[in-house]
């Protein structure tokens, strides 16, 4: 047994992760259900480092140093359970099974519990960065026991992305499902970021009247400022791309129906369970859903409404500058909501997640990597109990400075009939939090009227019910 780590599941993610370990000087045992893939990997990339190919599960386990560290990179769901069933009987107490797939954190909690009974550490690890990240350095979000991190952490720190200051983009997130939970919220934030960028593009196209090439240039400029991020960078690349077959902008020949694999949906489902308002993320998930309903859209094409008329010259450029403000302000709200969800999950499951550390490990390698995350980390480092990102003085000041333009952009979008669900949800969240009184008092009255659900008063302790169908006197119910 010579291998420090093993990877089973050699599709694109597993192969690239195995190569990343090998390139970093580790001896890697490699295994795949279909053995031909193992052979192909070693034939093609064997020169990159030390691989130990294994045809059978038994050979694979025998190749690993103890305590064994075995990474599963197969399709999430039942395949992961099938692989665990195959390997667990071959392992010994103290060994570590790592699931690097996109598992639901509830599955990770279950698997961790079951394997703990056998003395095996099960570590659910969120990995972000796609194929390229897996090969060159992803952002890695490991859950599982602190003991398992002591054995696994140094390897992950070696192969992970590094932030600009050299810090590895990985650290122990918390026990059992914490890593996969944080990866899930990462993807929810990714959906929101992408939708906000899409709305900004739509406004620049229809209201500012910019061409895709001009918008690409605008995003490149924004990418030099506070919006500096991977998603803004690739947005500029996509917008600047020309379709070879037609010579038209690529963005004009792609069908406008966005697809999804499910982690954004999970984020919203879990947020509903935890009672966390992630309205921007939810609108981003729904926006993809609306785009894909072609029959519904076709049936609604004749509905009345304004046709956008584009500005020009300085007015267009002034509007574009406002869109940058709206995008930045909405982005602050998305991250506020996402971090709130991580805090709520951490409280619910007793994970003790350090939010500043999460912001830190997202600074490189992952899809939402951005300069902005340094600021979030600083906010939580300064005040680990920060109740909301909007409670941070710097973010509050920035969003306050952006809000006039944010409102102007939304006003224009509404006037011109351009859908901006994520911008609008973000501004409504901001205004709801600042409101001295919300109409929820009326909601409570209605609930008490039809369901005797009771209410609290602003001026006295206790819970009350009004006898709506009687003499409308008030009774105390507690
Ligand atoms: P896939 O998700 O396409 O899975 C293919 C792999 O699963 C192959 O190695 C296949 O073996 C194996 N597999 C299946 Br399917 N059923 C199996 C079973 N019952 N027993 C054993 N092995 C089985 O691969 P991927 O795109 O590389 O993704 C791997 C994981 O990483 C997934 O959970 C994914 O969600 C996650 N992830 C992907 C990305 C990304 O950008 N693609 C990013 C982050 C995380 P075979 O060769 O014998 O069919």
UniProtKB/TrEMBL annotation:
Pathway annotation: Carbohydrate degradation; pentose phosphate pathway; D-ribulose 5-phosphate from D-glucose 6-phosphate (oxidative stage): step 3/3
Record's keyword annotation contains Oxidoreductase: yes
GO molecular function: phosphogluconate dehydrogenase (decarboxylating) activity
Positions of the 6-phosphogluconate dehydrogenase C-terminal domain: 179-469
Keywords: Gluconate utilization, NADP, Oxidoreductase, Pentose shunt
Broad EC category: oxidoreductase
Catalytic activity: 6-phospho-D-gluconate + NADP(+) = D-ribulose 5-phosphate + CO2 + NADPH
SUPFAM superfamilies referenced in this protein's UniProt entry, alphabetically: 6-phosphogluconate dehydrogenase C-terminal domain-like (SSF48179), NAD(P)-binding Rossmann-fold domains (SSF51735)
EC number: 1.1.1.44
Assembly and interaction partners: Homodimer.
Protein family per UniProt: Belongs to the 6-phosphogluconate dehydrogenase family.
NCBIfam families per record: gnd, PRK09287.1
Annotated function: Catalyzes the oxidative decarboxylation of 6-phosphogluconate to ribulose 5-phosphate and CO(2), with concomitant reduction of NADP to NADPH.
Protein name: 6-phosphogluconate dehydrogenase, decarboxylating
Provenance organism: Streptomyces bambusae
GN (gene name): gndA
């Amino acid at each position: 047994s010579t291998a420090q780590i093993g990877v089973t599941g050699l599709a694109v993610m597993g192969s690239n992760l195995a190569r990343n370990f090998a390139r970093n000087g580790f001896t890697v045992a490699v295994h795949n259900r279909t053995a031909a893939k193992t052979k192909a990997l070693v034939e093609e990339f064997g020169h990159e480092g030390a691989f130990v190919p294994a045809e059978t599960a038994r050979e694979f386990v025998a190749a690993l140093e103890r305590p064994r560290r075995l990474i599963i990179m197969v399709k999430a769901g039942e395949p992961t359970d099938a692989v665990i069933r195959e390997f667990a009987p071959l392992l010994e107490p103290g060994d570590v099974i790592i699931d690097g797939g996109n598992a639901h954190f509830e599955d990770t909690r279950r698997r961790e519990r079951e394997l703990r009974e056998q003395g095996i550490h099960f570590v659910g690890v969120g990995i972000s960065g796609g194929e390229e990240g897996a090969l060159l350095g992803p952002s890695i979000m490991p859950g599982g026991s602190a003991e398992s991190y002591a054995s696994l952490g140094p390897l992950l720190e070696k192969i992970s992305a590094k932030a600009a200051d050299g810090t590895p983009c990985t650290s122990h997130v918390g026990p059992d499902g914490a890593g996969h939970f944080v990866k899930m919220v990462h993807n929810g934030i990714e959906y929101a970021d992408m939708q906000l960028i899409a709305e900004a593009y739509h406004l620049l196209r229809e209201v500012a009247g910019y061409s895709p090439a001009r918008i690409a240039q605008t995003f490149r400029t924004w990418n030099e400022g506070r919006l500096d991020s991977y998603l803004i960078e690739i947005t500029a690349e996509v917008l600047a791309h020309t379709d070879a077959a037609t010579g038209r902008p690529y963005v004009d020949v792609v069908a406008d129906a966005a697809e999804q694999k499910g982690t954004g949906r999970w984020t919203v489902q879990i947020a509903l369970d935890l009672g966390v308002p992630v309205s921007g993320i939810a609108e981003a998930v729904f926006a993809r859903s609306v785009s894909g309903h072609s029959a519904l859209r076709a049936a609604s094409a004749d509905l009345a409404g304004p046709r956008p008329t584009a500005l020009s010259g300085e007015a267009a450029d002034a509007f574009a500058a406002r869109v940058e403000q709206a995008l930045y302000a909405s982005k602050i709200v998305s991250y506020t909501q996402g971090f709130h969800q991580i805090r709520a999950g951490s409280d619910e499951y007793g994970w003790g997640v350090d939010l500043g550390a999460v912001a830190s490990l997202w600074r490189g390698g992952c899809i939402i990597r951005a300069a902005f995350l340094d600021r979030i980390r600083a906010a939580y480092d300064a005040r680990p109990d920060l109740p909301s990102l909007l409670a941070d003085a710097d973010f509050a000041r920035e969003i306050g400075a952006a809000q006039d333009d944010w409102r102007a952009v939304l006003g224009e979008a509404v006037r011109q009939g351009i859908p901006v669900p994520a911008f609008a949800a973000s501004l409504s969240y901001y205004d709801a939090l600042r409101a001295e009184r919300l109409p929820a008092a009326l909601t409570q009255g209605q609930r008490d009227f039809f369901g005797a659900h009771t209410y609290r008063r602003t001026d006295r302790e206790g819970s009350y019910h009004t006898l709506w169908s009687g003499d409308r006197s008030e009774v105390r119910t507690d």
